[in-house]
């Protein structure tokens, strides 16, 4: 496979980090972006140390101006972006009884609008064969959990965006797909105040047919497949990767 330019948002830790490392091992040039600068630089350095090609670029997906500027810079240097992994996301627990406009907006702004902000400026230059992968969630497909109404709303919106973009850009040979992870062992799931918290494995494992949380690498491998020519006739789909928890 030719060296592609791959942009990953939220790639300093978790699923984004695993995806960046997977594309790096694949021989692609990986543009590692995050608000976490030290973590993002470390990922780019790890890819280069392993003989791959990578750079770190700070990016807060809440900024249209910064997303536009980064994409313009990448287009100027590489011609176009070949793969976008729209991954950056937050999942703060908020009971609906305590929901404010600000908290609701924050989650939709990062988890839904933030994906659009990197995809929108990149599309005009993207070439046939290019691919976009967005991170949804089982909470956007088939599942609910207490105190996640805002998150489910954003992740359902991501699926609508995937389906709409896939149809609108199929004629140009640009594929758009998503992954809906179940419970994956990352900060978003495990940190106090986030998603399930430190006891996530104990809480969730009894309901998961495979009996365990997933690892970020088990999502990254699916992302890498969706971006590959092995998935050349696959567009507008959301692949559920959850150890059998939901029907997808
Ligand atoms: P994580 O918390 O480990 O990583 C999220 C990354 O997004 C971090 O690097 C963080 O700095 C970055 N980020 C947050 N806000 C940002 C912003 N405004 N601008 C740029 N970057 C920002 O979480 P993760 O589990 O790796 O999640 C990755 C994606 O997968 C998210 O979209 C998440 O909703 C989705 N997901 C995760 C799970 C899970 O169980 N972990 C399940 C379903 C879906």
Automatic annotation (TrEMBL):
Belongs to the short-chain dehydrogenases/reductases (SDR) family. It comes from the Bacteria. InterPro entries: NAD(P)-bd_dom_sf (IPR036291), Sc_DH/Rdtase_CS (IPR020904), SDR (IPR050259), SDR_fam (IPR002347). PANTHER family: 3-OXOACYL-(ACYL-CARRIER-PROTEIN) REDUCTASE, 3-OXOACYL-[ACYL-CARRIER-PROTEIN] REDUCTASE FABG. This is SDR family oxidoreductase. GO terms for biological process: monocarboxylic acid metabolic process. It holds the Pfam family adh_short_C2. It comes from Pseudooceanicola albus.
């Amino acid at each position: 496979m030719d060296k592609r330019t791959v942009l990953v948002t939220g790639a300093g830790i978790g699923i984004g980090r695993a995806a960046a490392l997977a594309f790096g091992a694949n021989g692609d040039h990986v543009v590692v972006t995050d608000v976490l600068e030290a973590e993002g630089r470390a990922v780019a350095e790890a890819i280069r140390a392993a003989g791959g090609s990578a750079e770190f670029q700070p990016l807060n997906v809440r900024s249209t101006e910064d997303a536009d500027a980064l994409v313009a810079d990448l287009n100027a240097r590489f011609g176009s972006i070949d793969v976008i992994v729209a991954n950056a996301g937050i999942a703060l627990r908020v009971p609906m009884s305590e929901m404010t406009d600000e908290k609701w907006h924050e989650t939709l702004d990062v988890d839904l609008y933030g994906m659009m902000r990197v995809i929108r400026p990149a599309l005009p230059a993207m070439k046939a064969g290019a691919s976009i992968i967005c991170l949804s969630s089982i909470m956007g497909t088939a599942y609910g959990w207490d105190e996640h109404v805002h998150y489910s709303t954003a992740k359902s919106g991501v699926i609508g965006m995937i389906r709409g973009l896939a149809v609108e850009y199929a004629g140009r040979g640009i594929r758009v797909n998503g992954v809906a992870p179940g419970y994956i062992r990352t900060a978003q799931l495990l940190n106090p105040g986030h998603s399930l918290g430190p006891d996530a494995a104990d809480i969730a494992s009894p309901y998961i047919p495979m009996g365990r949380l997933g690892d970020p690498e088990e999502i990254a491998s699916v992302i890498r497949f969706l971006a590959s020519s092995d998935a050349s006739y696959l567009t507008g789909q959301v692949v559920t990767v959850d150890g059998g928890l939901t029907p997808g």
